[in-house]
Write a structure and sequence with these properties.
- It is built from no helices and eleven strands.
- It is mostly beta strands and 127 residues long.
- The chain starts with a strand and ends with a strand.
């Protein structure tokens, strides 16, 4: 059974940084594309960042335009963990952040491409 567990969320002020972590089990992590999505109250879930599988190829990344230059996604296959480093946080980044995994694609940016999801971690940025 695949499990994804996020951690690292919290309440911060605008301009601060946070690092989210997502640890997976029950899947071949290095062969899985990983993504971060977020959902703010009253809004649809949106793509934030994705990183390709890395078992035998160079890693690729994708970002939501509004987080480029502020957020960095990375992975540590030895720890079965994907990270989202979030810098220069803004109040509009406030949302529940979800980690997702997909074992059939090199990289994915749509929610419907992902098979497995974590439970989410709350990020609140005050102004």
């Amino acid at each position: 059974q695949v499990q994804l567990v996020e951690s690292g969320g919290g309440l911060v002020q605008a301009g601060d940084s946070l690092r989210l972590s997502c640890t997976g089990s029950g899947l071949t992590f290095s062969n899985s594309a990983m993504g971060w999505f977020r959902q703010a109250p009253g809004k649809e879930r949106e793509f934030v960042a994705a990183i390709s599988w890395s078992a035998w190829s160079a890693v690729s990344t994708r970002y939501l335009e509004s987080v480029k230059g502020r957020f960095v996604i990375s992975r540590d296959n030895a720890k079965n963990t994907v990270y989202l480093q979030m810098n220069s946080l803004k109040p509009e980044d406030t949302a529940v952040y979800y980690c997702a995994a997909e074992s059939g694609k090199y990289i994915a940016t749509r929610a419907d491409e992902y098979d497995y999801w974590g439970q989410g971690t709350q990020v609140t940025v005050s102004s």
